[in-house]
Automatic annotation (TrEMBL):
Residues 4-137 form the Phosphotyrosine protein phosphatase I domain. It holds the Pfam family LMWPc. This is Protein-tyrosine phosphatase, low molecular weight. Transmembrane segments: none annotated. Keywords: Arsenical resistance. SMART domains: LMWPc.
Length: 140
């Protein structure tokens, strides 16, 4: 059976879309080819790498990509994971469905490192729960 292709998009492709890519690949990589991109890529956030490593998922080899990288790659699902990307992303058609699920930006949280790490963990866990419900238990 051919894997379904999923593209996660957020503004900077630094945290939310990167975590979604890593999580879905780890949770259901046997069913999905998973990608991520941004409208203004800026590099993978080190705290995203760190909180994903806590789950045994290595994002250290990931890099930010512009959404245009995948313009000619047919995607079954295109998922915007932040409101800004939904508003500013050029339309990328999905063969099956375009989805939007906004998650808070953990990189916008200020404070000491423990506070910021907790914000990244919280968003990571929100994304994981949504992916479980949306892509792992059922196909949208």
């Amino acid at each position: 059976m051919e894997k379904l292709r999923v593209l996660f998009v957020c503004t900077h492709n630094s945290a939310r879309s990167q975590m979604a890519e890593g999580l879905l690949r780890a949770m259901a990589g046997d069913r999905y080819e998973v990608y991520s991109a941004g409208t203004e890529p800026r590099g993978v956030h080190p705290l995203a790498v760190r909180v994903m490593q806590e789950l045994g998922i290595d994002l250290s080899g990931h890099h930010s990509k512009h959404v245009d990288t995948y313009r000619d790659v047919p995607m079954d699902y295109v998922v915007t994971v932040c409101d800004s990307a939904r508003e500013h992303c050029p339309y990328v058609p999905a063969r099956r469905r375009n989805l939007h699920q906004s998650f808070p930006d953990p990189s916008a949280v200020e404070g000491d490192e423990p506070t910021r790490l907790e914000a990244f963990r919280h968003v990571r866990d929100q994304i994981r729960a949504w992916l479980e419900e949306t892509f792992v238990r059922q196909v949208p």
